[in-house]
Amino acid sequence: MPRPISAGTFSSGLLLGVFAILLGVGAIAAALRRRRGKARYPETYAATGGILYTIVQMGCGVVLLIGGAGLVSLAVIFKR
User: Fold this and answer.
1) Binning pLDDT at 50, 70 and 90, where does residue 9 land?
2) What is the pLDDT of residues 29-78, one digit of tens each?
3) Which of 38, 53, 58, 74 could make a disulfide contact with 45, Cβ separation 3.0–4.6 Å?
4) Of the candidates 26, 27, 45, 24, which has an alpha carbon nearest to the alpha carbon of residue 36?
């Protein structure tokens, strides 16, 4: 007979997933905000990595979003 999962186990995975999703959204927003700010100075923007820097920063945000969604779904699946 399997052991029942406690509410603490469920909530910790769920909260960690939600936190990762919020961090991912924040990272994407920061990347877009930073790109808009640097677009005023094209030479500086190009010297600091240009669009490639923004793509990498947004990619990290997407990884956090996917990881957070995975944690939330695992918490919900194992709750049952």
Assistant:
1) low
2) 998 888 777 767 778 777 878 788 889 999 999 999 999 999 999 888 88
3) 38
4) 45
Question: If DSSP codes are grouped into helix, strand and coil, which group holds residue 2?
Answer: coil
Residue whose tokens read 């790109």: 35
Helices (H), 1-80: 7-38, 42-47, 50-79
Tell me how far apart the alpha carbons of residues 80 and 73 are, in angstroms, rounded to a whole number: 11
What's the length of the chain?
A: 80
Q: How far is CA 50 from CA 8, 13, 35, in A?
A: 44, 36, 8
Q: How far is CA 71 from the centre of its chain?
A: 12
Query: What is the distance between the alpha carbons of residues 14 and 74, in angstroms, rounded to a whole number?
Result: 8
Taking a C-beta distance cutoff of 8 angstroms, is the pair 23, 60 a contact?
no
